[in-house]
Amino acid sequence: EAQVTQNPRYLITVTGKKLTVTCSQNMNHEYMSWYRQDPGLGLRQIYYSMNVEVTDKGDVPEGYKVSRKEKRNFPLILESPSPNQTSLYFCASSFSGRGRGYTFGSGTRLTVV
Amino acid sequence: AQSVTQLDSQVPVFEEAPVELRCNYSSSVSVYLFWYVQYPNQGLQLLLKYLSGSTLVKGINGFEAEFNKSQTSFHLRKPSVHISDTAEYFCAVTRRGGADGLTFGKGTHLIIQP
């Protein structure tokens, strides 16, 4: 089944403790991105990647890092999480012709205390 | 840069009534347009998309949307809603040939009343 898989689905952590949210897709998509969803704000893009070793900042990149060493994986790294990063995170992927639409993962609900 | 405005944060509708969810966008370049649906505690699912051609686009679950270039709108419609349509609906745009991703509106919560 074609899908984007995120792990974990739920995570509670403490301020300052480094964490990684994984994202993997099995559709050979070139394009991958991360979004965060907050009430009343919709989804905002954090980082995106057009292909292996090519990443760029989205609208809200502060406090996040990403890497794209393999085409299928695009992990989101929080080096020192803070409570304002408590949010619902989505990974998405697409072929480079993005009119084909994006496939989203099921989301990761992160709480930083 | 693009922006998307969803004019209603909540839309209450009685079951079997028609519904329209409004979306306006702003962009200096040509865009692709999308509507996504998010059911409670789930991810986003593509409802429909406008790429080019006919301005009336049909999607899944009986939804359709009409692209209006002069009014820069892409409103979503369904002639008769069901309880199962209760969800959050997001309008989104992306630049044709652009390197960046989707720009989303803030969402419209569709509430179906029995």
Structural class by secondary-structure content of chain A: mainly beta
Kindly report how far apart the N and C termini of chain A lie: 36 Å
| Count, helices of chain B | 0
How would you state the average pLDDT of chain A, rounded?
A: 93
N-to-C SSE series of chain B?
EEEEEEEEEEEE
Biggest interface between chains: A-B, 24 and 26 residues
Largest sheet of chain B: 6 strands, mixed
Please report the total strand number of chain B as a whole number. Answer: 12
Poorly predicted segments of chain A: none
Distance between the termini of chain B: 41 Å
Low-confidence stretches of chain B are none
| Global Rg of chain B | 14 Å
Shape summary of chain A: globular
Strand content of chain B: over 45%
Quick check: average pLDDT of chain B?
92
Series of H and E elements of chain A: EEEEEEEEEEE
Helical fraction of chain B: under 10%
Can you give a write-up of this model?
The complex is a heterodimer of chains A (113) and B (114). Chain A is mainly beta and 113 residues long. Helix content of chain A is 0%, strand content 50%. In chain A, the strands form two sheets. In chain A, strands 2, 4, 5, 6, 9, 10 and 11 form a seven-stranded mixed β-sheet that branches. In chain A, strands 1-3-8-7 form a four-stranded antiparallel β-sheet, with no helix packed on it. In chain A, strand 9 (87-94) and strand 10 form a beta hairpin. The N and C termini of chain B lie far apart (41 Å). Helix content of chain B is 0%, strand content 54%. Chain B is globular and about 45 Å long. Chain B has strands at 3-6, 10-14, 19-21, 23-26, 31-38, 44-50, 56-58, 64-68, 73-78, 87-95, 103-104, 108-113. Chain A binds chain B through residues 31, 33, 35, 40-45, 48, 50, 56, 58, 90, 92, 98-99, 101-107, and chain B through 6, 9, 32, 34, 36, 42-46, 49, 51, 90, 92, 94, 96, 98-107.
